[in-house]
Structure formats: structure tokens, C-alpha cells
Design goal:
71 residues; mainly alpha; 5 helices; 0% strand
């Protein structure tokens, strides 16, 4: 579902977009560090290039936590 540009600009300010980006920027590295794997492997799992239920669960858990904090 696409959000209309005007609606998006009204509901989201630049500050919150930058905060969201900063929080997501280190996601792969944080998950990799916690699970003892390389961040590039986490990135490959996230993109669907590789498969790992454990890493995918950790990614989804962290994303869920970040989005709850944003709400």
C-alpha cells in the first residue's frame, strides 16, 4: 500500500524519519553481535539470499521492538 506524498509529509516530520533511520541502521550489526555471526550474513538472511530461522526471528523481534517504541 502506497502512502500519498502529502499525507506522508503531514504525518511524519524529518526528525522522526532520521531517528527511525538511525535505529534501523545498526540492526544487522546488533543482531549479528548478539548471535555471534557476521553482519553480512544477517544482511543476506534479511534480503532472502540465505535462510536461517534463528536470525530471521531475531530480526523480526528487533524490528517489532523498534516499531513499538515508535508508536
Amino acid at each position: 500500500m502506497r502512502i500519498a506524498a502529502k499525507s506522508f509529509r503531514k504525518s511524519t516530520n524529518k526528525h522522526s524519519l532520521l531517528e527511525l533511520h538511525r535505529e534501523h541502521a545498526g540492526l544487522h550489526k546488533r543482531v549479528a553481535s548478539r548471535l555471534g555471526v557476521d553482519a553480512s550474513y544477517v544482511s543476506r538472511v534479511a534480503s532472502g539470499e540465505r535462510v536461517s530461522a534463528r536470525i530471521m526471528q531475531a530480526l523480526l523481534s528487533d524490528l517489532s521492538r523498534l516499531h513499538k517504541r515508535e508508536s
